[in-house]
């Protein structure tokens, strides 16, 4: 048989073709735009069949499904509001109906409803907590139940993997965004406590904490030269992140390459959490 590769690690053509997430199914919530879109695409490129959850943008979700299919992958779109237990249940039932089960669950759905503290309505507080924190609770709970129901399978060493989409604001306070920062601070301890609880069953729970990623959620922060210049002062690496940066991190966290990584938040932020204000001060 002909071999490719060099040195001591020779790779057969068959091995070379096996993708990192082959024979696994991934569910990504909030995948019709932004970071979720990038993550779903990256997981599909790595060989996973992908369930593309969306809340209101069916067209964008279907567009992603057809991109994945055109590239030779498998995907389908499912509508669900992750803050509603019945809809989350239906979403997992759809995963089972189409792909038998799910191996990788990315609890990504999130939103911002920003305002000065004294003006923040109870509704804006509750909506952000409902999607960003309760949504992750409901999604992860359904995931754990599904992993247990289906039992181990050969495609991964873990029984299942959950990736919580957090933010640098799980540690960086954010004036004018107390609802959002509170939700992400909540995600931090939610993720760690859950990781501790289910690790003995070989369920790996981790978070990704993105910094400023170029997506619709923060368009105001990067779409003019003045805004961009101001934003870059907060990023030691001096570039705005792209959803591909988060996609690559998600692929690694979802794969057996990170099999010993449990209960960790992976910051993908160009150094935003390094207190850049201190680079010439203090
Ligand atoms: C927020 C973005 C913000 C970034 C860095 C993210 O979690 O959703 O709006 O640009 O954090 O501050």
Fourth-tier CATH superfamily name: NAD(P)-binding Rossmann-like Domain
Domain unit count? 1
* Helicity range: 40-55%
Radius of gyration: 19 Å
- Ligands present: beta-D-glucopyranose
Q: Count up the helices.
A: 8
Order of strands, widest sheet: 3-2-1-4-5-6-7
Q: Uncertain spans, ≥5 residues at pLDDT below 50?
A: 1-8
**Under the CATH scheme, which class?**
Alpha Beta
Strand coverage percent: 5-15%
What is the SS-derived class?
A: alpha/beta
Family: Belongs to the short-chain dehydrogenases/reductases (SDR) family.
Keywords: Oxidoreductase
Protein name: 3-beta-hydroxycholanate 3-dehydrogenase (NAD(+)) 1
Enzyme class: oxidoreductase
Summary tags:
282 residues; Rossmann fold; seven-stranded parallel sheet; 8 helices; 13% strand; disordered N terminus; binds beta-D-glucopyranose; oxidoreductase; NAD(P)-bd_dom_sf; oxidoreductase activity; EC 1.1.1.391; 3-beta-hydroxycholanate 3-dehydrogenase (NAD(+)) 1
